[in-house]
Amino acid sequence: MYQKLKEYHVDGQKVYFQYEGSSKGEEPCVEVIADNIFNVFIDYTGMGHCTRAIEGELGRRLNCGKISENGKLESVSWEESGVVIRTKFLTVVVGDNFDVDFYNQEGMPLSLAYRGERKRNDAPSQAELQLLAKEGHEASGRSGADYQVQEIRSFDPKDCVYGLGDKTGVLNKRFYEYEMWNSDIPDPHEDNFKSLYKSIPFMLVSKEKGAYGIFFDNHNKTYFDLGKESDAYYVFGADAGNLDYYFIGGECLKEVISGYTWLTGRAPMQQLWTLGFHQSRWGYESEDEIRSIAAGMMKYDLPCDCIHFDIDYMDHYKVFTWNKETYEDGAKVIADFKEVGIKAVTIIDPGVKVEKDYYVYEEGVRNGYFAKTPEGEVYVNEVWPGDAVYPDFGKPEVRRWWGEKQKFLIDMGVSGVWNDMNEPASFRGPLPDDVVFTDEDVQATHAQVHNIYGHNMAKATYEGWKELTGKRPFVITRACYSGSQKYTTGWTGDNHSIWSHIRMAIPQMCNLGMSGMNFIGTDVGGFGSDCTPELFARWIQLGCFSPLFRDHCAKGCRGQEPWQFGEEVLSISRKYLNLRYELLPYLYDLMHECEVTGIPMMRPLVLEYEGDENVKNRNDEFMLGDRMLIAPVVEQGAREKLVYLPEGVWYDYWTGEKKEGKNFFVRTAPLDLCPIYVKEGAVIPKYPVRTHVGEDKDALLILEAYPGEGTYWHYQDNGEDFAYRKGAFNEYQIRSKDGRVEVEKIHEGYRPYVRMEVKTRKMIWPR
Ligand code: MIG
Fold this sequence. Notes:
There is one protein chain. This protein is 21% helix and 27% strand. By secondary structure, it is an alpha+beta fold. The site of ligand MIG has 10 residues, from loops. Ligand MIG binds at residues 282, 310-311, 347, 420, 478, 493-494, 527, 552.
């Protein structure tokens, strides 16, 4: 619709373009957000930006159309190829048809508009669609279709695509097609699912040289065709809203992640205990039963920091109530758990039971806090409590109210909240598109805010907890949007106890991490279906290295506590739980690094070794930070693993055997062994084995030094509140050379360790 470029004008950091055939007010715009970040914008709605992902000063500036100050537009000129806009890092060329091309400093193209014909030959006709429907098939996707809002950009043959949140399937999303529509799908999640609980419309492209990201900040339903329609280009689009995307250029994927999380926020450090082991299940029917779980942890000598209370603890599934019949005295159980070092996390669903005299319902109705039908009645659907209504979390007032409601849990001694069903889920069919909600200061339909419902619920929860406790709020969510990482951690919802799901867990968590959601986990052992001893043993090994380490399963399935699978699996579980607790300071360092840089704790190999062809599609290994490589066994019956190590020298964690990288080899992996490799020159900080994260966390730090030379930064604080933001932390620079370790404190603001101990690993060199 935009044809020949006629004119442009510069307004601060923005450049507006006028095209033949389009009138004023329809001028697309390109804006410098940072030296490596541009925003591309067409204001179809006439309402300007309406970002919910980008907040703070930058968000406010965007939303009210003010000038950004973090990058500098260095020059704009009309050249042969079009209007050329330069910053320190990027050159952007805007030409006819509003084709926007991005180049790096050296003039190498990073991303070009697609100028060819679209290939529409596999778009089914109306008649074909009907035939497919008759046979019970669904036409997959809308290949070849045009969206209300859309952008088509070129692929280079070697481009790989990552990110996009919690999508199923393999790590590299090239050639697949996805939709962003927060979805609670009870069937076992398959590789070919188009959407799942979370909508993070952010894709990263790793090129033969260089990388970039596209964040399509539109919270309507959006679509990404990453090469299904054609090898030559990709399409992203939306049913409504604006063309509003951020181009983030970089030399590598890490720079792109840093740019994206600079825009949308970085996952902040959680409390240290959240890195401990969590035990959960839906269907702990009574107080006695849940008490027996804590007792089991002690009886079997298993470290544990948290037990989760699923919907069973509520009175008739009414949020912010306690089931006094089966669960008796909530405050007492929680206090007793605390005595033995175990914290309680409770589930909270958004659906509020329709019931006269139930305080949450009454308050909400009185104040107009629930979503309404277009006719103005409170909208009712069904969830666990039966008839239920939906808080309108897009209203700041409702978020404040929901935040205050958390006091019920906090007073009871609860330590964190697990937000479920916030897509939002509903039992009597999906919420109609036209249910009336609010999007901050404007009325909006369900279709417009569906994808940010979970985000807003998490934000309300986080803010309530922060205000009421002063500690780092621990929130876990099922649904979210871009930017939710500022408020919440997440889990991947209802997986099953099947081998394909332990395999899927690795790319899924890695892509979530690259999409900003650092603190992520899968239900260890699988949620639905019945776990087997072998699968559980392997999943505990994977969980040990996932940011969120929670064993959880569904009501009615085989019990899944570590002692449910016999002696062998119990002792394997204990081995990996102990290892997890040893690694706490290392994991905590990574969480700190993520708050500073946005780089996730759990990383696909491609993040660390981007140039290596062998890692671009590596789905069954990952890294924990930059120095530990984990190669979990995810095949039934397998007692060996084909391992790939990228360049450099590595050491087998278990035997100390030295391995040359850029090599494939087979590692024997009996049921109790998860292959782990540590990079040459690494120091790994460890705690001694302990039963829970406790007061004595600062007693002893063990520095495990591997041969070779390297530097490591270790971070220490109280692991609880925000005092670190005012300087209450220690930072150590640790230099090691072939087992000789020097520690230098480079920041002092917290009590020191009572003792530090250096341990050199005994190494075996291959004969
Ligand atoms: O419809 O609260 O994903 O973790 O145990 C099921 C019961 C509702 C879904 C969550 C799951 C949780 C379960 N919930």
